Amino acid sequence: MSRNPLNDLGQLGDYLREQRQSARLSLRQLSELAGVSNPYLSQIERGLKRPSAEILQQLAKGLQVSAESLYVRAGILEERPDTDDRTTTVPAAIAEDPYLTKRQKDTLLDVYTSLVGSAARAAATETTEPTTAVAPKASAPGAAATTTPRPTRKPGATKTTTKSTKRSPKE
């Protein structure tokens, strides 16, 4: 199936305009934020010019959207068939991590679920199998770093300081 590049440019321009308007930015404001000239940005929005990946990245920063979404709309990248794969891969990675205890896995899944939604927990329970907990090794990636405890002063002890000697000005 061949895609019409002019149609892609129009769709990209429409998407950029929608994003700009939803961010309540004028054409001039976005052009300043992105470091793109006002006329060039106008031509992109009207579907007359095809922006480079670098320009799209600058626009994405100015609009606070992902550059990937602009690349897909511009036809630079193919759209991922499964755009919500993070709900299956993150819980699976947590479940399969040999350095996490059951309690740590449950806590991580609870935090992830609170951020992403209940679909993450459902996916995690499908992939979680009974595992034996392994205590993290000191050199294992992700293991907590050990710190040396700070010495504490005894109650009533005062801090010892050294007196500095003042030098007399040279004559």
Automatic annotation (TrEMBL):
Residues 16-70 form the HTH cro/C1-type domain. Keywords: DNA-binding. GO terms for cellular component: cytosol. Transmembrane segments: none annotated. InterPro entries: Cro/C1-type_HTH, Lambda_DNA-bd_dom_sf, TransReg_Diox_bact_type. It comes from the Bacteria. CDD domains: HTH_XRE. Gene3D superfamilies: lambda repressor-like DNA-binding domains (1.10.260.40). Residues 119-171 are annotated as: Disordered. GO terms for molecular function: DNA binding; DNA-binding transcription factor activity. Residues 119-163 have a biased composition (Low complexity). This is HTH cro/C1-type domain-containing protein.
